[in-house]
Amino acid sequence: MDYPFGDGTSLALEPEYAEARATCPVVRVRLPFGGEAWLVTRHADVREVLTDPRFSSRETTRNPDGPRFTPQPLFPAGVMSMDPPEHTRIRSLVSKAFTGARVQALRPRITEIAEGLADAMLEHGPPADLVTMFALPLPVTVICELLGVPYADHGRFRELSDALLSTTALPPEEIFAAVKELNLYLAGLIEARRAAPRDDMLSGLIRARDQEDRLSEQELVEFSVGLLVTGHETAATQIANFTYMLARNPGQLAALRADPALIPNAVEELLRHTPLGAVSGIPRVATEDVELSGVTIKAGDSVVPSINSANHDEAVFDNPHDLDVTRESNPHIAFGHGVHFCLGAQLARAELQIAVHTLLTRFPALRISADDAALHWKKGLLIRGFSSLSVTW
Amino acid sequence: MNGPWHVEVTPDCIASGVCVGTAPAHFALVEGRSVPRNPSAAPDPLLLSVADACPMEAIRVRAADGTALAPTD
Ligand code: HEM
Ligand code: SF4
User: Fold this and answer.
1) Domains of chain A
2) Residue A356 and residue A246: Cα distance in Å, rounded?
3) Which of A42, A63, A180, A192 could form a disulfide with A25 if both were Cys (CB 3.0 to 4.6 A apart)?
């Protein structure tokens, strides 16, 4: 069976996942590059793959020709490619900047950015492209300010960032070129901050490198590139996706309008329900034989833990295919689980809550302009969502 | 630094699984929350880095005499 199951131009999860969960929850699939892997579809098994140290992230970079979604190994020196204890070293260095308490302190600034973007959109008048006018600039401004990257350069790194997440959208040479250019861009900024430090994360990481030798130069560059790219592609994509999901579920939207205190709960439900990955899950490699749902995964086999599928597992969620903003028990794993649990989870939650709140209050009559057949989807990337989304009010 | 360390997980825990994945000998997830396997643990530097990696700063590690060891500022 070829994987991914669809081209990602829909926010409805492909039916193959439910079929796999019911009939063969750990199933052999062929990835776009490098051959076959085990697709893991049940919530319990996916959590197992994400927490069990016998499933290694580092091993995926040891065999660069192994089963994978991108022609190049993504960030070989980045956190996502590390296992403990090397992973713990980098993670404990940076997690301070992203803790719940830190993010709480950022909320007023995030709200200010969101309000400013809403003002500009109102001034522009309908119809407007939600992606370029709101969904993208909000998280990109936030990550630029946190990291210390000039927002004025965003035109340059938006395309590069898309290129990095390409699976089949671009020829490999173009992806390699984009990786190189982004690395050079960040390396240049790092040199500038080295000479003249500021109060930003880049300067902090440089200090950890130069004064305490806690990470290598390549780790410093790749980690910064990684943050810039994730800061672009994740929350931005989900802001537009969530807007679409709410517009297409008018009953849920009305419930939210009637009771905005439901927004945090609604964001958790939207995170669970709306697949962000077009391919779901970054592969791991088994370092020993492991049994999952009766299937023996052999040492050396690649495994793809499907977060999307886990979040729709009927064994864990009642009516998983319904969007229910009042859902009470919601142990979704949209931010992953275990050592690689999303570093930006609390930040992304704040951005998404503020985005939904701002759009609901400033645009009480917000609608998607086009029919489903006329929407513009990203294609051939690791993530699914809109390249542009025309809205009116 | 004589004597065992006190390990505590506060109600801020969001069950991310970071501690459980990083230090399975020290933490387990029980009903949607992390609990220390041994609240009075033999000193282990891993406990300090895990406390620093927790996304909610929900892991508190104290020395036998009560001095806070992690998370660090
Ligand atoms: C809706 C928004 C987001 C979602 C759904 C999301 C989801 C995820 C998931 C599922 C993982 C784990 C992948 C795996 O284990 O295979 C992850 C890791 C990560 N995320 Fe996010 N993310 C979001 C936003 C962000 C933001 C805004 C940032 C940065 C500012 C970020 C930074 C990271 C980093 C650095 C990792 C790697 C962590 C590690 O390897 O230890 N994410 N994210
Ligand atoms: S790392 Fe922190 S938030 Fe995550 S499970 Fe452990 S104590 Fe809870």
Assistant:
1) 15-392 (1.10.630.10)
2) 10
3) A42
> What's the CA-to-centroid distance between A246 and ligand 1, angstroms?
23
pTM of the complete model: 0.95
Residues of B in Cβ contact (< 8 Å) with A334: none
Alpha carbons B55 and B37: distance in angstroms, whole number: 20
Closest Cβ–Cβ partner in B21, B52, B55 for A346:
B55
For A379, the token pair is: 């294609």
Residue ranges and CATH numbers for the domains of chain B are: 5-70 (3.30.70.20)
Nearest atom of ligand 2 to the alpha carbon of A341:
4
Decide: B41 and B47 in contact? Cβ < 8 Å.
yes
Question: Which of B24, B53, B56 has the CB atom closest to A91's CB atom?
Answer: B53
Question: pLDDT truncated to tens, each residue of chain A (393 aa)?
Answer: 999 998 889 999 999 999 999 999 999 999 998 999 999 999 999 999 999 999 999 998 888 888 988 887 667 778 888 999 999 988 888 888 899 999 999 999 999 999 999 999 999 999 999 999 999 999 999 999 999 999 999 888 888 888 887 877 888 888 888 889 999 999 999 999 999 999 999 999 999 898 888 889 988 998 899 899 888 789 999 999 999 999 999 999 999 999 999 999 999 999 999 999 888 778 999 999 999 999 999 999 999 999 999 999 999 999 999 999 999 999 999 999 999 999 999 999 999 999 999 999 999 999 999 888 889 998 888 889 999 999 999
CB-based contacts of A372: which residues, under 8 Å, 6+ apart? none
